[in-house]
């Protein structure tokens, strides 16, 4: 299931709903991304605004989820990604994968967030307390993390 | 054809969307970039560093030599930074 939304989400409720009624699920793995502020002093982040591409964002996330289901025996999966303005400590993203066995749940969850970071059309704009805003640069380490899972046409 | 811009490309060009009538010789993403860059100084500056421009044709990630002929919507944006 894919949800692209402005509002916050309740982790417990979302995970309970994901597994409810499916007793083939033996393992559920989830990852939550939060707005981070690693800078101190004048470089501190006061807020972050997530821009997205309505339509393509949902399509890209659905493709990533479908790829996870093609690679691992999943019973259920969930991607929630927020957009709009958020502050340090706020939840940005949730990915979760459920499977009869833990290995598939762990791996699929890791895959979902790695691919999402390099393929889903979202852009972060950071604001400082002084009101200066700057677009976050993409990180090479994210490309490396995504590449470890190979490509859709070359399954690893 | 509808052209969309996101993040700093939108800011540099000064709009998030425009409708264009393409001349016949514009058949690939690369052709389209060349043609758009000639539309204004703002376009020229936004597309100056092509290594930092990504593209989607009809909401699917695309490459420079992919076709745009017949597409309804082409979007240009920086490398994504979600998650």
Would you write up a description of this structure?
The complex is a heterodimer of chains A (156) and B (83). Chain A has a single domain (2-147), classed as Molybdopterin biosynthesis MoaE subunit (Aldehyde Oxidoreductase, domain 3, Alpha-Beta Complex), CATH 3.90.1170. In chain A, 33% of the residues lie in helices and 29% in strands. Chain A contains four helices and eight strands, in the order E-H-E-E-H-E-E-E-H-E-E-H. Chain A has helices at residues 11-19, 56-71, 102-119, 140-147; strands spanning 2-5, 27-34, 47-52, 76-82, 84-86, 91-99, 122-127, 133-135. In chain A, helix 2 runs antiparallel to helix 3 (102-119) and helix 3 (102-119) packs across helix 4 (140-147). Chain A is globular. Chain B has a five-stranded mixed beta sheet with strand order 2-1-5-3-4. In chain B, 27% of the residues lie in helices and 23% in strands. Chain B contains three helices and five strands; from the N terminus they run E-H-E-H-H-E-E-E. Chain B has one domain: Roll (Ubiquitin-like (UB roll)), CATH 3.10.20.30. The model of chain B has no long low-confidence stretch (mean pLDDT 96). The termini of chain B are far apart. Classes of the chains: A alpha+beta (156), B alpha+beta (83). The interface between A and B is medium-sized, with 28 and 16 residues.
Task: Specify the CATH class of chain B.
Answer: Alpha Beta
Oligomer: heterodimer
Nearest-angstrom radius of gyration of chain A? 16 Å
**Tally of separate domains of chain A:** 1
Between the first and last Cα atoms of chain A, what is the distance in angstroms?
A: 24 Å
The succession of helices and strands of chain B, N to C, reads: EHEHHEEE
| CATH superfamily grouping of chain A | Molybdopterin biosynthesis MoaE subunit
Order of strands across the widest beta sheet of chain A?
1-4-6-2
Level of helix content of chain A? 25-40%
CATH superfamily of chain B: Beta-grasp domain
Largest interface: A-B, 28 and 16 residues
Structural class, from secondary structure content of chain B? alpha+beta
Average pLDDT rating of chain B: 96
CATH topology type of chain A:
Aldehyde Oxidoreductase, domain 3
